[in-house]
Amino acid sequence: MMEDLLTANNMLADAPAERLSARDFHSGVVPIWCPGCGDYGVLSALEDALAMHGRPPHEVVLVSGIGCSSRLPAYTSCYGFHGVHGRALPFAAGVKLARPDLDVIAVGGDGDGYSIGGNHFMHACRRDLDMVYLVMDNRVYGMTKGQPSPTTESDWNSNIAPGGVGLRPFDPLTLAIAAGATFVARGFSAQPHDLTKLIVEAIRWPGFAFIEVLSPCVAFRREEFDWKASVHPVKQSIEDDRAAAHAAILADDGFGLGVVFRDHRTLKPAPEPKRASLAEIESEFMIDA
Questions:
Q1: What is the pTM of this model?
Q2: Residue 289, Cβ neighbours under 10 Å: how many?
Q3: pLDDT interval class at 270 (50, 70, 90)
Q4: How does pLDDT run across 222-234, given as a tens digit for each residue?
Q5: What CA dihedral angle connects 114, 62, 216 and 203, to 10 degrees?
Q6: How much is the pLDDT for 7?
Q7: 183-188 and 256-262 beta bridge pairing
Q8: HEC states along the chain?
Q9: What is the pLDDT of residues 38-47, one digit of tens each?
Q10: Could you tell me the sign of the dihedral formed by the alpha carbons of 175, 178, 180, 182, in that order?
């Protein structure tokens, strides 16, 4: 039954794809990221993915928190919501619950998503709503001048943390798998074609899909551009075995790219979208005198 659901979902999404291009998703707003920022590659891949997926901009909602990468909704022509620090996922969940007929994508960075937003990340994984979470990880707080983030290496030396913070880096993929996410992947901003395919698959996944995107920071972490020589395909994409997926990601060096884990066992068909007029919605909140 679930295979039929996934097939039908993909066929439906494929149907109108030829009518859209990445340009249809441009907002015309010029990004203010630093020249060379990895987030440009993520934006390009996302626009290509949305065009390939085939739904028009008004049927897609992008939700973000605070940070460099959280500016992304303004650069597309989709509906967007720029929320508060760390709260992209609860806002996105509210949109999806209110409008299950829309594609909802939450975007943000490692500081926004894994520090103040860490609790929301964990529970979004276990709730498994049909939405995407795209995190651009540069292992630093870029917008607020280079503080270490939860994913920063313990010995990364900086003016703010001389000698490093001495803390073990947060492992987002391990937590996502342990918390119950049914689709877990890693991409790289300098490989936008592969990232595009990952995002399309995530959008079409009928559950919570999490993609960690390695996205170098040109301002504070120029050494991250050496990631080009470090990334490689994941050794194996695990299906339906959470323990094996957990072991595989613990054995990974942090640079394996691709889908790490898919879990078909807990997926359930999405409910039929219910549309209501404004008057019908208002009537639900009427208080009898």
A1: 0.85
A2: 3
A3: low
A4: 899 899 999 999 9
A5: 90
A6: 52
A7: antiparallel
A8: CHHHHHHHHHHHHHCCHHHCCHHHHECCCCCCCCCCCCHHHHHHHHHHHHHHHCCCHHHEEEEECCCCHHHHHHHECCEEEECCCCCHHHHHHHHHHHCCCCEEEEEEEHHHHHHHCHHHHHHHHHHCCCEEEEEEECCCECCCCCECCCCCCCCCCCCCCCCCCCCCCCCHHHHHHHHCCCEEEEEECCCHHHHHHHHHHHHHCCCEEEEEEECCCCCCCHHHHHHHHCCEECCCCEECCHHHHHHHHHHCCCCEEEEEEECCCCCCCCCCCCCCCHHHHHHHCCCCC
A9: 999 999 999 9
A10: positive
CA distances from 46 to 19, 76, 256 (A): 17, 9, 20
What is the set of domains in the chain, with CATH numbers?
2-284 (3.40.50.970)
Structure-block tokens of residue 233:
């395909």
Q: What is the structure's pLDDT at 275?
A: 62
Q: What is the pLDDT of residue 148?
A: 79
Q: Residue 127 to residues 8, 95, 209: CA-CA distances in angstroms?
A: 23, 14, 11
Contacts of residues 222-226 at CB distance under 8 Å and 24 or more positions apart, as own/partner, are 224/38, 224/138, 224/139
- Nearest in space to 190 (alpha carbons), one of 62, 36, 74: 36
Virtual torsion, Cα 143, 32, 25, 74, nearest 10 deg: 60
Residue 203 tokens read as: 């959008």
The answer, yes or no, to whether residue 16 has pLDDT greater than 60, is: no
CA-CA-CA-CA torsion sign (22, 26, 30, 33): negative
The position carrying tokens 């249809």 is: 24
Are the CB atoms for 207 and 270 separated by under 8 Å? no
The tens digit of pLDDT for each residue in 72-129 reads 999 999 999 888 877 899 999 999 999 999 999 999 998 888 988 777 899 999 999 9
